[in-house]
Automatic annotation (TrEMBL):
It is an enzyme of class 3 (hydrolase). It catalyses: S-hexadecanoyl-N-acetylcysteamine + H2O = N-acetylcysteamine + hexadecanoate + H(+). GO terms for cellular component: lysosome. Keywords: Glycoprotein, Hydrolase, Lysosome, Signal. One of its GO terms (molecular function) is thiolester hydrolase activity. Transmembrane segments: none annotated. This is palmitoyl-CoA hydrolase. Catalyzes the cleavage of thioester bonds from S-palmitoyl-CoA or S-palmitoyl-N-acetylcysteamine (unbranched structures) but does not have activity against palmitoylcysteine or palmitoylated proteins, branched structures or bulky head groups. Conversely, hydrolyzes both long and short chain fatty acyl-CoA substrate. It holds the Pfam family Palm_thioest. It comes from the Eukaryota. Belongs to the palmitoyl-protein thioesterase family. Its EC number is 3.1.2.2. The lineage of its organism: Eukaryota, Metazoa, Ecdysozoa, Arthropoda, Hexapoda.
Length: 276
């Protein structure tokens, strides 16, 4: 499901996680650019590629906690599902040492919509995005990672009832971990959210910025992140980060989902500057 790379960037390691249905090799271009521009030393840890449930029942055993509680400051980035998982991992560690987190076209507010059909057919060929909630919002469905962040605006009651991941890390459901999830995110020096209208996979593409669909009067409309409760109530610390100039939004057109971490110009323009 994910893999981890660690590089020393200006004496600061950078941990990178890839997304679903891809492996460590998918991040080779990003690795080379980081090494050629900034890195003095690097190593890679392969952690497998699966589509099973994102997090275990006990949050302290979350995957990807690699070296995040050491005394060395870290940069952390993740592409697609890997960015969502990387963010969640940070939130489970109130004393983490991550200074910069870069979310690269990741469904931070969840996934739902027309482009999802192409994505779903790779994993569940017989399912349609409009009715997939019938599987995803069940105990069996929640054993798959995609179901863990499937956010159907028409079925919010089922989403909160069955989803074992996204409504928890976004503090839509309050638990004993909610304050930790918020405190840990505000510990960052910078959170960079990157996405674009030509992504073609993340739906809505603005989910990369915590925006998502709202269902009103029979129609779906994207609600900007700063108008959603997750921001206005400062549920996970987004508003705190924004108020302190620590939240960076990068909307870049003409970049497909599979190019964010492979296109040299894109990497140099929207990723590397935030790692310096």
């Amino acid at each position: 499901m994910f893999s981890v790379f660690t590089f020393i960037v200006s004496y600061k390691p950078v941990v990178i996680m890839h997304g679903i249905l891809s492996g460590a090799d998918s991040m080779n271009s990003l690795q080379r650019e980081i090494e050629s521009q900034l890195v003095q030393f690097g190593k890679r840890l392969e952690a497998g590629k699966r589509i099973k449930r994102l997090f275990p029942n006990d949050w302290k055993f979350a995957p990807g906690r690699y070296n995040c509680n050491s005394n060395t400051s870290l940069g952390r980035s993740g592409h697609s599902q890997g960015g969502l998982l990387a963010r969640a991992t940070i939130q489970t560690m109130p004393n983490h040492n991550v200074k910069v987190f870069i979310s690269l076209s990741s469904p931070q507010a969840g996934q739902y919509g027309k482009f999802s059909a192409n994505f779903l057919h790779l994993i569940f060929p017989d399912l349609a995005s409009r009715t997939v909630y019938e599987l995803f919002y069940s105990k069996v469905g929640q054993l798959t990672s995609v179901a863990n962040y499937w956010n159907d605006p028409r079925e919010q009651d089922l989403y909160r009832r069955y989803s074992v991941f996204l409504p928890y890390i976004n503090n839509e459901i309050q638990t004993s971990n909610s304050s930790i999830f918020r405190t840990a995110l505000t510990r960052l020096d910078k959170m960079v959210l990157i996405g674009g209208p030509d992504d073609g996979v993340i739906t809505p593409w603005q989910s990369s910025f915590f925006s998502h669909f709202g269902f009103f009067n029979g129609s779906l409309d994207v609600i900007p992140f700063n108008e959603r409760e997750i921001f206005t109530s400062d549920a996970i610390g987004l508003r705190t980060l924004a108020d302190h100039g620590k939240l960076v939004i990068v909307a870049k057109p003409f970049v497909h989902h599979l190019s964010w971490h492979r296109n040299r110009n894109v990497i140099r323009e929207v990723i590397l500057p935030h790692l310096i």
